[in-house]
Amino acid sequence: MEIRPYPFTELDNLELHPGYLELQRDEPVARVRLPYGGDAWLATRYEDVKTVLADPRFSRAAVMEPGADVPRTLPTMPTETNILSMDPPDHTRLRRLVAKAFTARRTEQLRERAQEIVDGLLDEMERQGAPADLVEALAMPLPITIICEMLGVPFEDRDKFRSWSEAAVAITAFTHEEIIAANQSLRVYIAELTERKRAEPADDMLSVLVAAHDNEDRLSTEELVSFGVALLVAGHETTANQIGNFVYQLLRHPDRLGELRADLSLVPAAIEELLRITPLGGSAGFPRIATAEVELSGVTIKPGEAVFVNNVVANRDPSVFDNPNELDFHREHNPHIMFGHGAHHCIGAPLARMELQVAIGTLLKRFPLLRLDGDVAFKKGRLIRGPQALSVRW
Predict the structure, then answer these.
(1) For position 46, what pLDDT does the model report?
(2) 122: containing domain
């Protein structure tokens, strides 16, 4: 069996490396070699990816076991456990602490606030005139404002934690030392903020987590800080990049853009289709460790072996999606797994959907002649792909 170097070469723009689809067709469970930690498996078919994401025989927590030399993209193993590296029941215990804040009902209550923020941002963009960088004008400030208000993080600190977040989700864009320092800075920042919440609790998620730590003994000090960091970073990085990615995708597909402009009721379906087809991850992501023998597409995964998946590739599986490489806003069957599957399904999925719908829908309504102003450079060497800047005119 051929062992391929992995991750594959990072392509420009939002292209998907052709090697993924070739493997999906010919070798859906392939052997790959990571820069550090040795060899692993890469699963690319939809059903196999769902199995790896949801089957309890695949563990995230095993990655963090002392002495584990897990295949990975960075030279050293992470040392702090967080919700992303937990298995049930620990994962379930932490998730329940904030689950109410991310329900579909609560998210719909936030839609009016999101609309208010977007309207204000676009008013300012219009006032300043074209060209405008849509990343700075809309994509970043919307999710940062929302997550700051939900967590109880001062908005005026956004420049600090944004720069730390950018380094924390890097692979090669920053040095290993810079990545470690950024993660540590985020932890110190959240630890100090939780102390302030302890002295002056408020109606926000950090105060809820502090109370769960102090009064109910439902999470440790390390879990409190790690959870706060994860919510802050994940709460803005993914959505901010996807707003830029989606606008870029639409402006590259004038027929689909025209279709959407003519019927804005298609926006929710368009967001789901853009979620399905748009590559967001820029790397191998987070491995799972098999704790028992599991068969995937005729390949036996042995206990202790690591498996990587790619959700976007799974979302191009022709056995599940008709014409999977085409952007289709009328797709009737779209069970994409961009937000994951199983116990680790993204808790913020309803919030992200709502923010994307409000941002994209309002932008197209306000600026029907929106167009790109020059070439677009995309971030590289990071866990999350997105435009460095997105200059537009209208």
Answers:
(1) 98
(2) 3-393
CB 32 within 8 A of CB 40: yes
Sheet holding 58-59, edge to edge: 3-5, 29-33, 39-43, 306-309, 288-290, 58-59
pLDDT at position 282, please? 67
Number of domain units in the chain? 1
In this prediction, residue 173 carries a pLDDT of: 87
pTM for this predicted structure = 0.95
Give 391's strand partners. Answer: 133
The enclosing domain of 47 has a CATH number of 1.10.630.10
- Residue 49, CA atoms < 13 Å, CB-side half-sphere: 26
SS (H, E, C) the chain: CCEEECCCCCCCCCCCCHHHHHHHHHCCEEEEECCECCEEEEECCHHHHHHHHHCCCEECHHHHCCCCCCCECCCCCCCCCCHHHCCCCHHHHHHHHHHHHHCHHHHHHHHHHHHHHHHHHHHHHHHHCCCEEHHHHHHCHHHHHHHHHHHCCCHHHHHHHHHHHHHHCECCCCCHHHHHHHHHHHHHHHHHHHHHHHHCCCCCHHHHHHHHHHCCCCCCHHHHHHHHHHHHHHHHHHHHHHHHHHHHHHHHCHHHHHHHHHCHHHHHHHHHHHHHHCCCECCCCCCEEECCCEEECCEEECCCCEEEECHHHHCCCCCCCCCCCCCCCCCCCCCCCCCCCHHHCCCCHHHHHHHHHHHHHHHHHHCCCCEECCCCCECCCECECCECCCEEEC
Contacts of 200 (CB under 8 A, 6+ apart): none
CA 381/CA 165 separation, integer angstroms: 14
Low-confidence ranges of the chain (pLDDT < 70): 282, 284
Q: Smallest Cα–Cα separation from 228: which of 196, 250, 264, 251?
A: 196
Give φ, ψ of 324 to 5 degrees: -65, -20
